[in-house]
TrEMBL record:
Ranges for domain DUF4218: 300-412
Family annotation (InterPro entries): DUF4216, DUF4218, Transposase_21
Source organism (scientific name): Dioscorea cayennensis subsp. rotundata
PANTHER family linked: DUF4218 DOMAIN-CONTAINING PROTEIN-RELATED, OS02G0543900 PROTEIN
Highest taxon, organism lineage: Eukaryota
Domain DUF4216: 502-578
A Pfam family assignment: DUF4218
Biased composition (Basic residues): 102-114
Segments of this protein annotated with the region Disordered: 102-129
Protein name: Uncharacterized protein LOC120279674
Length: 683
């Protein structure tokens, strides 16, 4: 038994304050935090503690926060230790009278801004007191769950909500990459914090002769063109039915940002779409680090987990967080980013996250809200609605001729086949197969099989969803050349687009559904290839098994097909990136030939070599010189205004306008030559 809650409710249920210097409930008093004086908040770094003692990252202080890391990973506090610390702690539940009186007086006699200042002073005093306190003094109360006799022996008492962790991590990544106002963790205050920490001197603000400050572009900075590509990929993508909401509606190409994203949208972005969008608009260092982060979340959210894989995942999580510390500023590392380091251990103790995150809780809360009929008494409405539904469910079990989820007929009959029991060698199925199907077949434009909803290409032409992508895994013999005497047999994935669905009827005995697809030529590099990051790309202008030859096989059994969807590549015409889809609301028991269950498809990334490198990092992106160009163009605009001011009033005529335009063009060319001569450096 454990609690499932979001992070603010973690403090209410456990008694540990999840804000401030010691915000991590797993690290407790050993939380590695640092106050950012310019950003006015705490950052939570120090992930090198989870590395091996002899790892070179521990001594590379110039690549991290400027300190050597000699500490070990903190150990979680057991339930018995918590009870021992809280024996003498007295806590009065409810709001205190003095606080309520003080709050009422402040609201009546002062403004909201003054109340915020007083709260900030109180918080600063509390932080100073926490610095001098012990771990026992950091607990707010003794959790009421310790009244249960077995609660003290639990290794996992309160779950970290993976749903909200994914949401906050994805928001941080998108905000800092797209430099969204109010959401970006990279701004002037973040650069000034680097000055205070005396690290990454190349990223410090530069003061120009005109009094302005220039912020050097970091390695994760994106140009306007790259932001357009990022947004265009998400704008054009079409996903299958039931996969997610319409992500393209949340893309604002004009302002180059994403808006109105729900928690599940962030989940889909972090698991599947974010690396696809970044492969064309980000550097290799940033792309590989974010892809590795997405792989970690993807494995954590898998249906099948193994202890050996989770042990490796703990090391991968510490490595990717250390790599992110080398790339992003300290303001990026909020408490939700830090909590990733504790998720593999909780997965080992609690199992798959599908039974421990907030998605079913949020859906149930939405169901309870729908019970409200009288907004004046919401609690009573919820109680009455829940009680009424229970009564209807109980009575439906005793109603005849009413099919419910409790008395619906079985899908598979349990009787033994009569012909088999009589000992017949030839069954009716074999006879009907020998006779052949009916010459009249049925044609469909949509079909549901294996937990997937398939549509033909013609049906989804005007739809915002994509359900025509198919993949079939076939055992194929491969030859290295025409003279190869030792062929190799292995599984080959054939990718295609569904064009037609037909149903063969064997005279009402049984039916067979066939899919006809346009299959990509997977035997030639002109039809399929891997990009520099390892993503599979296909070209539908190179097809095989089109049906033009007798030996072609354009049809496959519907039971053999799984679903994929494609994202158009904006740099190479005709090429598409393959993204696999997984069936929902079905039991995936895995392959019968293997003992393992369903496998989690991770992103192919070459981050292992990057994560293990000990060379100095390149923090400044040299190919981004938009700031220098904008400054020179602003000077050109001022010069243009001066030129226009000295031109006589008749400049508005055609001749005068041509003279002014020639002068402006000449000045613009001079400014452009000046920019190229300085190579983007401040002037």
């Amino acid at each position: 038994m454990w609690t499932i809650n979001d992070f603010p409710a973690y403090a209410i249920l456990s008694g540990w304050i999840t804000k401030g210097k010691y915000a991590c409930p797993c690290c407790a008093a050993e939380t590695a935090s640092r106050w950012l004086s310019n950003g006015q908040k705490f950052c939570y770094m120090g992930h090198r503690r989870w590395l091996a003692k002899d790892h070179p990252y521990r001594l590379q202080k110039h690549l991290f926060d400027g300190t050597l890391e000699l500490r070990e990973a903190p150990l979680s506090t057991s339930g018995s230790d918590i009870l021992l610390m809280l024996n003498d702690v007295q806590y009065r539940y409810g709001k205190r009278i003095k606080q309520r009186l003080r709050k009422s007086k402040a609201s009546c006699s002062s403004k909201k801004r003054q109340r915020q200042e007083s709260n900030f002073q109180e918080d600063s005093v509390m932080d100073k007191e926490e610095d001098e306190s012990q771990e026992a003094d950091l607990w707010k109360k003794r959790s009421i769950f310790f009244d249960l006799p077995y609660w003290v022996h639990h290794l996992l008492r309160h779950n970290l909500d993976v749903m909200h962790i994914e949401k906050n991590v994805c928001e941080n990544i998108i905000g800092i990459l797209l430099n969204v106002d109010g959401k970006s963790k990279d701004n002037l205050k973040a650069k000034l914090d680097l000055v205070d920490m005396e690290i990454r001197h190349v990223l410090h603000p530069e003061y120009l002769p005109n009094g302005r400050r220039r912020l050097p572009p970091a390695v994760y900075s994106m140009t306007k063109g790259e932001k357009d590509v990022f947004c265009q990929v998400l704008k054009n993508i079409k996903v299958p039915d039931g996969y997610s909401s319409n992500i393209s509606r949340c893309v604002n190409q004009k302002e180059r940002k994403l808006h109105s994203l729900k928690s599940h949208d962030h989940h889909i972005l972090l698991h599947d779409l974010l690396p696809i969008a970044l492969r064309l608009s980000s550097s290799k260092q940033v792309m590989c680090s974010i892809s590795e982060l997405c792989n970690i979340f993807k494995i954590l959210c898998g249906k099948v987990l193994s202890v050996e894989e989770l042990d490796k995942l703990q090391y991968r999580a510490s490595m990717v967080l250390c790599q992110l510390e080398k790339i992003f500023p300290p303001s990026f590392f909020t408490i939700m980013v830090h909590l990733l380091i504790h998720l593999p251990l909780q997965a080992k103790l609690g199992g798959p996250v599908h039974y421990r995150w907030m998605y079913p809780i949020e859906r149930f809360l939405l169901k309870l809200k729908n019970y409200v009929r009288n907004k004046k008494y919401p609690e009573g409405s919820i109680a009455e609605g829940y009680w009424a539904e229970e009564c209807v469910t109980f009575c439906s079990r005793y109603l005849e001729d009413v099919e419910t989820i409790f008395d619906k007929p079985s899908r598979n009959l349990g009787e033994v086949h009569d012909e088999v029991s009589r000992g017949r060698n030839v069954t009716e199925e074999v006879r009907f197969l020998a006779q052949g199907p009916n010459q009249i077949v049925k044609r469909y434009k949509g079909y549901i099989i294996n937990g997937f909803r398939f549509h033909t290409k013609s049906r989804e032409r005007l739809r915002r969803t994509q359900n025509s992508g198919c993949v079939v895994t076939s055992s194929t013999v491969s030859y290295a050349s025409a003279s190869d005497a030792n062929p190799v047999q292995g599984n080959v994935d054939y990718y295609g687009i569904l064009n037609d669905i037909i149903e063969l009827d064997y005279f009402q005995k049984f039916k067979v559904v066939l899919f006809r697809c346009d299959w990509v030529d997977v035997t030639n590099s002109r039809g399929i290839k891997k990009d520099k990051y390892g993503f599979t790309m296909v070209n539908f202008s190179r097809l095989i098994h089109t049906g033009a030859n007798v030996i072609d096989e354009p049809y496959v059994f519907s039971s053999q097909v799984k679903q994929v969807f494609y994202s158009k590549d904006l740099t190479e015409s005709g090429w598409y990136v393959v993204i696999r889809n997984h069936a929902r609301e079905v039991y995936d028991m895995g392959d019968e030939s293997t003992e393992s269950g369903p496998r989690t498809d991770c992103f192919p990334t070459s981050s292992e070599g990057i994560l293990s490198s000990n060379d100095d990092e390149q923090w400044v992106r040299e190919d981004v010189n938009e700031d220098a160009q904008l400054r020179d163009l602003s000077r050109f605009a001022e010069t243009r205004q001066q030129l226009l001011s000295v031109i006589p009033n008749h400049w508005t005529t055609l001749i005068g306008f041509a003279v002014a335009n020639n002068l402006n063009c000449k000045q613009h060319q001079d400014a452009k030559i000046k920019i190229e001569g300085h190579e983007g450096n401040p002037i």
